[in-house]
Inverse folding.
């Protein structure tokens, strides 16, 4: 049973490393701020959470060391990273950063003009 959990922990760590590499390529290759932010916030968040979960499982099973700080880090990243990604994209949009020229739909186009008229 311990060997199975070690394999699962190793797979989670490798999966998290893979997602972090995918996020890196997404930030480098994608065309605009919004898609880059999506790649960074989604892939990197899941990647870091997978690495932390794999680390937690390994040390809990192998050494019997239960570290609640790792669990708190997972919860903190899960709660804050998507919110931060959303706020960064919203700030970029409100400051006038243009969408990629091949973007199909702008959901905030009318809402931003209404806010500017209210001020």
């Amino acid at each position: 049973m311990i060997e199975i959990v070690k394999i699962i922990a190793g797979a989670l760590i490798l999966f998290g490393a893979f997602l972090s590499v995918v996020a890196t390529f997404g930030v480098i290759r994608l065309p605009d701020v919004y898609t880059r932010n999506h790649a960074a916030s989604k892939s990197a968040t899941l990647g870091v959470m997978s690495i932390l979960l794999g680390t937690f499982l390994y040390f809990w099973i192998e050494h019997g060391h239960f570290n609640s700080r790792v669990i708190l880090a997972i919860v903190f990243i899960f709660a804050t990273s998507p919110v931060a990604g959303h706020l960064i994209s919203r700030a970029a949009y409100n400051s006038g950063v243009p969408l990629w020229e091949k973007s199909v739909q702008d959901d905030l186009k009318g809402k931003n003009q209404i806010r500017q008229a209210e001020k």
